[in-house]
Amino acid sequence: MIWDTHAHLNDRQFDVDRDEVIERARQGGVTTIINIGDSEATSRQAVSLAAKYPFIYASVGVHPHEAKNCNEETWTNLSRLAQNPKVVAWGEIGLDYYRNLSPRDVQRQVFIRQLELADEMGLPVVIHDRDAHGDILQILKKHPPQAGGVFHSFSGSWEMAKELLSLGFYLSFSGPLTFKNNRKTVEVATNIPEDRFVVETDCPYLTPEPYRGKRNEPLYVNQVINKIAELKGISTEKAALLAVENSRRLFRITK
Ligand code: NI
């Protein structure tokens, strides 16, 4: 049993075979998927898909790329969606200073606004941080999420990881952990306490080895858990069990 805590099943790349992809994941031992919203539209779709499958949960939120497209109506609509019992997190939210698809000051405003909304709704946050470690830390120290949260596809150093762990965050690992020469993430995964990591695919992106170059899908979360087991010197079953326990605690899923 293994969970994919961060999938984008509403991505257009799944339009041709979404149900088969979900079925394949189930057959391969993926018992729960958290389907992540990154805009108002995908948040709405995530909630709909969660209604269709009992083992799929949803998050709602606006990605920093989309920050420039938000207004008051966005927040009203997302807050209404967030009341659905299958919504277990607010995100993905954060800052992306790599692609800069929205102005940085707008990204920061929208990030802070959504941290406040997550607190209002009592939800943990899913954080996207790309080349923005300094500003993200500064904002989170000023606005610590009351229900906690996770840094998804964590790509920072062990130094950064230690700081986030001390602030109570979980760290999530994905395909890049399996890439050759990814020493930084390997160091983090090796050292992270057993009660603070979760795993994800971020599909259709970040495909792990040996499927690199293909579309990613929830089934391949198995590759990530295998790598964590290897690094920590524990069995795959034990690594999967730890990740599931951590995911339940983080997202408050008791089923
Ligand atoms: Ni994502």
Key traits:
single chain, 255 residues, alpha/beta, TIM Barrel, eight-stranded parallel beta sheet, 17% strand, globular, binds nickel (II) ion
Care to describe what's here?
The chain is α/β, with parallel strands linked by helices and 255 residues long. The protein has a single domain (2-251), classed as TIM Barrel. It contains nine helices and eight strands. It has helices at 18-27, 40-52, 72-82, 104-121, 133-142, 158-166, 183-191, 221-232, 236-251; strands at residues 2-7, 30-35, 56-60, 87-96, 125-130, 149-151, 170-173, 197-199. It has an eight-stranded parallel β-sheet with strand order 1-2-3-4-5-6-7-8. The two termini are 13 Å apart. The structure holds nickel (II) ion. Nickel (II) ion (NI) binds next to loops.
Helix content: 40-55%
- Give unreliable regions as ranges: none
Task: Provide mean pLDDT, rounded.
Answer: 97
Bound molecules: nickel (II) ion
